[in-house]
Each structure stands twice: as structure tokens, then as C-alpha cells.
Amino acid sequence: MKLSKFCDVKKEAEDLYNRIERLTKQSDIISDVVQNGVTGHRKNILSITGIDLKRAYKLELYKNKLKNKYDELLELQNEVEDFIEKIEDSQTRQIMRYRYMDSKSWIQIMHKMNYSAESTARMIHDRFLNKK
After folding, report:
1. Which of 25-58 are b and which e, b meaning 16 or more Cβ less than 10 Å from the residue's Cβ?
2. Which of 13, 21, 76, 101 could bridge across to 6 with cysteines, CB 3.0–4.6 Å?
């Protein structure tokens, strides 16, 4: 179903975004210390620094994947919004919007809808989807 696919793609996009954030915070400079022979009793130690091309490649790959996920997510979001707008019952429509568009938990929806139990919103949601 489009609703669950929308949620899955949304989570995947969030994960890619977080990976990009972690990689961006890392330095793009790498260095190493090597021993370059021995002169008498002294060791010649050299420091080598350079750009981490593997990290740069990985970052670019993640950015491209994220762009593709955002494109897919936008398309799915439009389909889900259209689906939700066609729901006749206002309460059900609000629950679906809070759950899928706003990513609210059942407890958050309970408070928004002024229900006495979080299971109320979930039951309305489940009954609607079972009819479909």
C-alpha cells in the first residue's frame, strides 16, 4: 500500500540524511606517520597528509541517493495527500494526516484529537484501512 511505502521511503531518506550529516562532520583530510629508514641512531619519521577520496566518493554517492529518495518521496507524498483528501469522514482524514503526513505517534494523535485513549485513533485508522 502507498501509505506504508511512503513511511518506509521517509525513514530511508532520514537515514541517508543522517549518514550525510555524520560524514560531513568528519574531516576530509587524512594523515599518517611513516618511518623512512634509519640514519645512524635516529629514525626519519615523515607525516603524510591528503584528501580522503573514499570519504568524498561516499558522500557524493549518499547525496545522489538522497536526491533520488526525495524525488520518490515527493511523488508518494502527493499520492498520499490525494488519498487522504478523498476520505469522507473528517475524523478519519485528520487521523490519517497526523499519522502519515506529520509522522505523529498514536499518543500524540490522541492528544490532538482529544481522545481519552490512544487506541481510539488506532482503531478508527485500522477500521478504515480494513474497509479498503
Report:
1. eeeeeeeeeeeeeeeeeeeeeeeeeeebeebeee
2. 76
